[in-house]
Amino acid sequence: MGCVTFNGIQSQDLHIQVEAPPEYETPERDYDVQHVPGRNGDIVQDNGSYKNVDRPYKIAIGSFDETYTVMANRISKWLHAKSGYGRLEDSYEPDYYRLGMYLESGSIENLFEHAGRTTIKFNCKPQRFLKSGEVTQILTTNRTLVNPTDFVALPIITVKGTGNGVLHVGASIVTITNIINYITLNCEIGDAYNGLINLNSYIVLSNKEFPKLVPGDNAISFSGGITSVEVTPNWWTI
Questions:
Q1: Cα–Cα–Cα angle for 179, 213, 168, nearest 5°?
Q2: Cα angle 178, 193, 154; round to 5
Q3: CB within 8 A of 159, min separation 6: which ones?
Q4: Residue 228 above 90 pLDDT?
Q5: Which domains does the chain have, with CATH numbers?
Q6: Closest CA relative to residue 48, chosen from 226, 209, 171, 178
Q7: N or C: where does the chain have the smaller number of CB atoms within 10 Å of the terminal CB?
């Protein structure tokens, strides 16, 4: 029997047992395919991303102390409590987490008023995020971070110091002006900020893109008024 944790709530706390490991669904790559009449073969444009996947769990509920209706209502509240993506973990892949949402309605089979059975299915982003990628690396000197996956990661980088400085991450160079305590570079959403203050105008990106962590070695160095760099790498795979 397994366990599912969604939005910080564990399934066993709701008298849920996962009856079998979920099937692993490989995400579909996002292609635009166009057929040109009179030409053999289709034209394929790779958009460089993946589509969402489903993560289904066959579950059973049961308790001698609570009725079927009480347990079913609690499960429905659990699944629908969050709008949009929530953190999804399970005991079958303890080193990873996903971002998923519950979009479907469903029915739970009533077994003798104190038990039930159904399948719940989460619609997930294609990434399986490594929990090791949530660990913030604190750099006080130049270092190399090793991306253990085959996929480019988009980190959160907090640069600490005062005044002006230059940050090198692999082939990316970020020139920063007027650092006051710190500036955070969120490389996934493409924003620079200090708390609620947007600081995009305080940075210059050498290649017009925020830094990325490519598979393998990523040399990180800094100079000027930068005293330390904190990197949350956000490693992921599919």
A1: 40
A2: 115
A3: 165, 167, 176, 179, 182, 183, 184, 185, 222, 226, 229
A4: yes
A5: 4-126 (2.40.30.200), 133-237 (2.60.120.860)
A6: 209
A7: N
The CA R_g of the chain, rounded to the nearest whole Å, is: 23
Would you tell me how many other CB atoms lie within 10 Å of the CB of residue 229? 25
Residue 12 backbone phi and psi in degrees, to 5: -65, -20
Which residues fall within 8 angstroms of residue 2, CB to CB, at 6 or more apart? Answer: 17, 18, 20, 21, 57, 90, 91, 92
Cα pseudo-dihedral 12, 14, 20, 25, rounded to 10: -110
**CB atoms near residue 127 (< 10 Å):** 21
Alpha helix locations (H) across the chain? Answer: 68-80
Q: What is the largest CA-CA distance in the chain?
A: 71
Cα(83)–Cα(37) distance, integer angstroms: 44
Q: How far apart are CA 143 and CA 138, in angstroms?
A: 10
pLDDT in tens, 18-67: 998 898 888 999 988 898 888 888 888 988 899 999 999 999 887 777 78
Helix (H, G, I), strand (E, B) or coil at 141: coil
Q: Using DSSP, state whether 27 is helix, strand or coil.
A: coil
